[in-house]
What we know:
Elements lengths: L5 H28 L9 H46 L4 H8 L7 H13 L4 H12 L2 H16 L3 H65 L15 H28 L6 H20 L4
Helix pairs in contact: 1-2, 2-3, 2-7, 2-9, 4-5, 5-6, 6-7, 7-8, 7-9, 8-9
Amino acid sequence: MPKIEPKEKKLVGIVSVAIGIFMGVATIIATFVLRFQNMPFTWDQLLILAMMIAVFPSAVMEWLDLRWERGIDRNIPRLLREIAESGRTGLTLIRAIEVSAERDYGPLSPELKQLVAQLSWGTSLEDALRSFAKRARTKLAQRTADLILEVSRSGGDTKEIMEQLNKHIGELQSIDRERYSQMRPYSAVVYIAFGVFLFTDVMLIRSFFTQIITLQSSVLNTQGGTATIFGGISKVDIAFLKTVMFHAVIVQAVIGGLVAGKVSEARLGAGLKHVLILMIIGFATFFLFVWYPVM
């Protein structure tokens, strides 16, 4: 899995926003200035499509970055275990790290090899570990680097200390997995709530409001089409109601997606993929069940 640098994420985000703004401006110009006719979607629908296109690259980058960070954390206990096993043979801590770096640890391997390269250039273990933690970027990697540094300073039975360190890191990961398993169902609640909201909107438009329009039309026809009905209430604008409900669905998708990412992954950026998925579901549902019969 590729490593996504923070600068790359920022660059992709800026480019995505720029593309979205360009498409939005082009839509507004085409609709209100050039007044193009027979466009497949209305101007607000095209703006939502531009928003989805703008969100897609950043959502993919966040997803890849999250996978990479999980790969780092997943391989740290194995690294510590093999360093401890190398210590049993009488190797020093630095030599044990060098031997362990020759093995495959997934996304952790390039960072570990760079650490070993820095040591071979004469960099102190402390500076090499600090640089390693900075490149790895995860809290677990930072904590591991600090603990390994303390082990090197304290001396003593390195093998025993590394085994205890491995046990400690394993317990931290167990806590994180338990938290993740407990919080993940809440993201499903967001999807369920969005589905209920979307279903209610579609049913209101297809059934309730349609019946009101039919009833109003029949009453207006009997009265010559000039009188108001239902105690002075004028005719319901079904197109306006469709637009309002569609906008409400998009707002629900954006807020719900961000909440799902924050709750389940503990980071707001992880919610971009949920935002994109919910927006696609909402747009596709309105296209198939609300707009398509009259397009």
